């Protein structure tokens, strides 16, 4: 087995995606062109900003059999992806990849992983010293008539608000998202609030999924989430994933909007408690 860094190239981004397909038992046709393009961009983004945290495992024939994508943002290390082809499991591929990715964490005090509900993944993350916090997911069709109107302004944001968003990040998770904000703005719209009650932001993608939310107070977080859900067209779906028990405010907003609650994996943390009010991004933590 050969371990090498993921290059910032379309070929390597596609190699990582092929391992993801194999690991999840998905067919190539199940991915729409926009989803594939978004995955390629995010893989290349991380390979460009964090080459020391992005690794590809290849077998003797040069076929990709595993991949890890990790980033380091100031005092926080995050693992965005760790996948192994089922045909290569049980051979130490995942352990070797995680070891390389975690070497990129040197100098950081905190760690974060959005883990799936897969028992093997949970075992690997726990063995690496992470505390596993169960998460929930809200999904369904928004009923705007059931939602209370936001208690203040939440405006459409953009690049001009990146400094504010980085400041909120540092307060909540000990590290700004930095270059990740520019990448997120390519794929999502962002709603921002900033007044005497606090500051915060919420990224919402085209499918109605909350990609990332951070706020300095629950009041602002509730306003942002309600504004994001109310911005969906009539009858459109929405989802709010990766909610720890500390995000009860989000559960209340989602249930009031008519969304259904279900279990959704783990938030794996090291050196920190679950940040709140906070909904992490699977790719950018």
Write the SSE topology.
Blueprint (H helix, E strand, L loop, with lengths): L1 E4 L4 H15 L8 H17 L4 E5 L5 E10 L2 E9 L8 H11 L6 E6 L3 H9 L3 E11 L13 E2 L5 H12 L5 H9 E8 L2 E8 L4 E6 L2 H13 L6 E7 L4 H9 L3 E11 L7 E2 L6
Parallel strand pairs: 4-5
Antiparallel strand pairs: 1-2, 2-3, 3-4, 5-12, 6-11, 6-12, 7-8, 8-9, 9-10, 10-13
Describe this structure in words.
- This protein has 285 residues and is an alpha+beta fold.
- The chain has two domains: 2-108, Aminopeptidase (3-Layer(aba) Sandwich); 137-265, Aminopeptidase (3-Layer(aba) Sandwich), CATH 3.40.630.
- The protein contains eight helices and 13 strands.
- The chain has helices spanning 10-24, 33-49, 93-103, 119-127, 162-173, 179-187, 218-230, 248-256, and strands at 2-5, 54-58, 64-73, 76-84, 110-115, 131-141, 155-156, 188-195, 198-205, 210-215, 237-243, 260-270, 278-279.
- An eight-stranded mixed β-sheet has the order 1-2-3-4-5-12-6-11, with helices on both faces. A five-stranded antiparallel β-sheet has the order 7-8-9-10-13.
- A hairpin with a 2-residue loop joins strand 3 and strand 4 (76-84).
- The longest helix is centred in the N-terminal third of the chain and has 17 residues, at 33-49.
- It starts with a strand and ends in a 6-residue tail after the last strand.
- The relative contact order is 0.16.
- The mean pLDDT is 94.
- This is GNAT family N-acetyltransferase.
- Residues 1-150 form the N-acetyltransferase domain.
